[in-house]
Amino acid sequence: MPEAISHMLEPHSALYLDTRPHVITEGSGIEVRDEDGQSFVDGVAGLWSVTLGYSEPRLVEAATRQMNKLPFYGSFNHRTNDVALALAADLVDIAPIPMGKVFFGNSGSDANDSAIKFARYYHWSQGRPERRKIISHSCGYHGTTLAAGSATGLPHIHHGFGLDTGDFLSAHCPNPLHPSSRGMSESEQVDWLMEDFENLIEEAGPETVAAFISEPILGAGGLIIPPAGYFARLQEILARHDILFIADEVITGYGRTGSMFATTEFGLSPDIITTAKGLSSSYLPISATLVGERVSAALAEGSKQIGTFGHGFTYSGHPVPAAVARETLAIVRERDIPGHVRDVAPHLARGLDKFRGSEAVRDVRGHGLLGGVEFDAAAVGREPGQLGQAVLRAAKERGLLLRAMGDTVVFAPPLIITGEQIDDLMERFTAAYHDVVDSPRLRQAA
Length: 446
Ligand code: PMP
Description:
Layout: E1 24-28, E2 31-34, E3 39-42, H1 45-48, H2 57-69, H3 82-94, E4 101-105, H4 108-125, E5 133-137, H5 146-151, H6 155-158, E6 168-171, H7 186-204, E7 209-214, H8 230-240, E8 244-248, H9 262-265, E9 272-275, E10 287-291, H10 293-306, H11 319-334, H12 337-353, E11 361-367, E12 370-375, H13 386-397, E13 400-401, E14 403-405, E15 408-411, H14 419-437, H15 440-445
Helix pairs in contact: 2-11, 3-11, 4-10, 7-8, 12-14, 13-14
Bound molecules: 4'-deoxy-4'-aminopyridoxal-5'-phosphate.
4'-deoxy-4'-aminopyridoxal-5'-phosphate binds at residues 47, 107-109, 112, 141-143, 215, 219-220, 248, 250-251, 276.
InterPro entries: Aminotrans_3, Aminotrans_3_PPA_site, PyrdxlP-dep_Trfase, PyrdxlP-dep_Trfase_major, PyrdxlP-dep_Trfase_small
Protein name: Aminotransferase
GO molecular function: transaminase activity
């Protein structure tokens, strides 16, 4: 087998590059090591998700204990396992607003597919089957399965895949830097976005819209933080038209923003909350869709008409990831991880602030342990997207792994990171930035 070629159909990758991917083989704390023995600070916690770092023994023990006791029992036909049931109770207990029930899946995508189906089922059970349409943001990311991919606005998720566009509507990205809102105050931007949103609903016909889905902070769309007051106004419109609100907390849930759920910080009152990633610190795949009382009552009512609720996966409530999730939540609470995030977040904010006004930087933004630096590639004579990639390559040379969305480099380190470790991470990033921007050779390569 030739060494250079990957036989894996690699997700979200440039498949035409027939070379060996960067292969990670070990992890410890906030660092990972690759097959060549080189260590890296992981600035993005795997995929925004390894919140407790790579060597939490309690999670390994929780998985092993459960594997020995009961390695699997599913949850169909009113038979389940004790761990899934206990985790559902834990989640209802910590939910940011009163929630009725919890549905388990395996990924953020399936959590959002489930939420979308539940919203439609809700309306159907209330005698309104025509309410099928889903509104999401043009810069929103909700996954890549058929429904979650259809709700995802990013063009490369759509191209070639024949996703459903008919029932999915795209609202303006609430990006304060959007050219159309340049020069506006925050409240003027919100007015402008609301007008656009109302028009979208009117054109679609409010009686055909089931739900609106949004991340509180839009992650993979470029770390977009909507202007102040955005969600409060939006929720008024949704309530007026009886459109359900799905908050996608797949990135923000379980501490990343400095509270257990961003729903609390942003004053949201969603009908459904979707979570995954940090629920198990990604040690095993599991997602949880938290369903509000009103919706869960309607799901029960609908299932009465049919005789059963026709949704669920073999691995819904799998006891091993559920045991890891219970242990993760216990650790997050015992160690007050959200409080820790609030304590160390100023280190990230200070590191990011130093980039304000830099030659090739258009914007800097952050919240909790989420940060982003948006480069202005044109300012150094480069094509859009190229500067972000060049800085990523330079950061890797300096032992730091990051991700870029276009020209926005994002930071989402493990939540256990210390202030000093953040300072070190930002020093490496700063050096990488100067490697690219100050070096004629690397500038050229960018
Ligand atoms: N929602 C959000 C906000 C996400 O960031 C992601 C993944 N990055 C997803 C959903 C999809 O999750 P998954 O990749 O586990 O399907």
